[in-house]
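User: Modeling request: complex.
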Amino acid sequence: MSDISQTASGEQSRKGRGSFDLGRMLLEGRAFFALIAIIIIFSILSPVYFTTNNMLTMSSHVAIFGLLSLGMLLVILTGGIDLSVGSTLGLSGMVAGFLMQGVTLESAGVTLYFPVWAVVILTCALGAFVGAINGILIAWFRVPAFVATLGMLYVARGAALLMTNGLTYNNLGGSPELGNTGFDWLGFNRLFGIPVGVLIFAAVAIVLIFVLNRTPFGRWIYSTGGNSRAAELSGVPVKRVQVLVYVLSGVCAAIAGLVLSSQLTSAGPTAGNTYELTAIAGVVIGGAALTGGRGNVRGTLLGAFVIGFLSDGLVIIGVSSYWQTVFMGAVIVLAVLLNSIQYRGRKKSAKPASGSGSASPQSGTTGG
Amino acid sequence: MRRAKWFRQLAVGAAAMCGLSLMGVAQAQQSETQENKEPLTIGYTVYAMSGWVSSGREGVDAVARANNVDLRWASADNSVASQVAQMNQFIAQGVDAIVVDPVDSAALGPQIKKARERDIPVIGTNVKVFDPGKQYLNSYVGPDDIAAGENQTRALIRKIGGKGNVVILQGPLGQSGTIDRTKGIENVLAEHPEVKVLAKRPGDWKREEGYNIMASWLSRYGEDIDGVISENDDMAVGAIRAMRQRRINDIPIVGIDGIEAGLQNVAAGHQLMSNLQNAPLQLGMALQVAVNAARGQEVPKEIFIGMPIVTQENAEQYYRQMYKNREQFLDELPELIRRNLASGDYGNQQ
Amino acid sequence: MSTAHTENAASTRSTKAIGAIFNRTRLASLVVWIAFACYVVPLAIVEPQFISFYNIISILMLISVYALIGFGEGVVVLSGGIDLSVGSVVGLAGVVAALILDGHSGLGWALMAILGGVAAGIVIGTFNGIAVALLNIPAFVATLGTLSIALGCGYVLSNGQQISINNMEFLDISVYSWFGIPIPIYILFGVFFLLWLTLSRTRLGRYVYAVGGNIQAAFVAGLPIRRVLISAFMISGALSGLAGVLLASQITAGIATTGTGYELIAIAAPVIGGISLAGGRGSIAGALFGVILLGTIDNGLTILNVSPFYQHIISGFIIILAVFLDTVASRRKLV
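Assistant: Request completed. Predicted assembly structure:
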């Protein structure tokens, strides 16, 4: 609601979905060009940067943040925010670790070992549960999203630490006698030479593209974020949509937790600490607006790759880690600056001098 | 009607908060069980509940039980400001002694000084305290990080035949553990000019960082890397996973700490060696020294606990002692600590 | 001619809006204060030392650092923005102050160091303000960028080392007391009073509420939106810088990483105290209250010797509960 031309362009892109929208292409183009520039510059600085092997390595690093960013995208599209993803990632890894070690039932005196597929389902269910609490607090109890998920950040981290009193689960490989091998297949192993984590990341992205573009639920997400009051009046089940996006974000975080634990074959309670900011940055660099209603999966993928390829590139060319933090910050600002210039140019032509309209992340449409 | 609802919600909120505060009380009273000696109240503040600290906590609890100590445990969650507040709080409570595992070596000077002015002994542990705080410490109980860095580097260089290229995974820059372990590594590297350091980078003690950095290095240097020095086992665990992902099994890697996964890796031959930094022993010994100081006994100014070298031969044995038979180890720990303090062989594990 | 008219209309409107805001926050914070009392009173009965003079001072000392960044954040949030860079600025300001001192003694150098630390904060704040107001970068991203940049600058300047401070006058800031109360606590309440005056009694204050409440209306009314936004970020930067200087004095060193993670506390405090993240609603007293609540939770749980693992969970629940009560209260008022 903060800016007329912004809302209009959001409207347009929703209508023009499927067809060819030049404005949107250009907007995404900025993040795309940033990614191309990063790849070219690092390839010049180090010949090994642009090799298949390194690309795959970097992609499997991107997959973890990228999964969080994809879940975050859904939440941000509805005008919310989810700060609990990093903690949910840690908690999910711990629960997976707990299940893989075998659950001893005191009363029956037996130890249950779950097959990996059951562990995956239970862990995702846990992520969904954490997300559902977030969603219910936000949609039904009207707690601001920032606070509800900030609280959940602490609660989930505390729960993860409590599970083992702070210790790490090792050796999640399972053993053939117990029939629970295959945990390595969740992220560590390679299929057709590609790390499974990257394949999972790609699969989730494809599903979300389909959901956002081809289903009523996808339309509801955009309209909830664009103007929740109007959406409600036109029959969108706004509350259910809000709960569902947090559930999906929780599931994405759980999947990321599984991939990370599989890569390291261990799960620590502090894993994923402060990942939430990186996840949000990926979404925003990809052109989504924190006010909701604007953004898409392709942009978010580009954003995640910009961040991952840059940080790994700086390691490869051996930039001091002090300077690495400076560079990361500068590139985040630059990438988004390019987006903003794009917007300002269009706004000037459409309606002069509504300059600072998009400056502040106001969630005037959260309906609280 | 509305009013009633409003009050009900308020009542629920209030009840929840009261419940929470009572929960804490119940916990606080649990630790006052034994009666063999006059009870002491000791404040123990740690930088964060990392895996290593959590593992050490069990040793601290065992020593507290054996000495009839009402332990006040606080974690600063890596925030210097919180730790300053916790120190002040312990002083305000008038505890009998304070043990501090600092967030930062240079901080806490004024708080330590203030505690000493009120006759509260302060023991530093795990992370060194620099001046001006250092002069006011009754004692510092910590690992011999320099020796550990030297040991691991020597073992690696022997393995690669005295020459070749190595990469170094460091801890967070500026921390005393990183500084001392790096110093130890550099001491030995200086004796071997044919060993070249291709790259070094802080992985902040984390497995995922070890994984990511090692993966990038494998892209950059590939087979040129002859050996990896990791300043702790967690980063080594990550680096080993990254190597296995690239199907590389022949680059030797050394670590420090002897965490569970580290001991297993050494036993399985994935990791060349480690140095056992026994968390329950070290953090427990710090508490024992605090107890001794609070009871007016003379305590050594500095206690450096040597880290036994873990190789494939003895890794299994340490693993059994530390993890498989952990209950037994913890039961015997207070006695072991008392023996070590008496003999001066602080790193003794039996 | 017509500009004067609109400005007048806008200021009447914003004054009216501010009146409504204060009414609502007063009721809202009343509810949270009651909830707060329900937590503190049993605690004080079970552990009397919780309300001892020394412990209250120790809580206020902890709060003094968090409160300053919380106040700055509060102003930015009122103007409709958000500032993630505060934690990094705390570290950077400490490093700058320590570098200025660098072995020099005397009051003059101490003052220079304080000014230097605050100036470093203002530089970052101005940078944030320009990025947000002039370059139209969303505040979340711009300040996320400066979070990295300020932290990196701190690393580069200090070379990753702790820089010890030996200037006695500078160290005295956190040690010296008037009437048994340490100086940072006077600074805390002084800054609070100044901000309260600025926000409730000056034109800048009205503009902050107006811009945060409805930027479109503020634009139509011809308010200097850009200058207001830049000022808000400069205030936040300056206060974070001041917090960094105080913390450096408390811990006798400048360390780049000291403030890491403080941004979440800084944002949580005003939000718990009833400042709306959507901007334009709430008061600076709310930010103070939020910080006090967070400070007493930590302190109380440590006094009760609750396991740090439970501490996380309990803090999380109390944050959600406090804000939930607040929203319940403000919704009733709205109906």
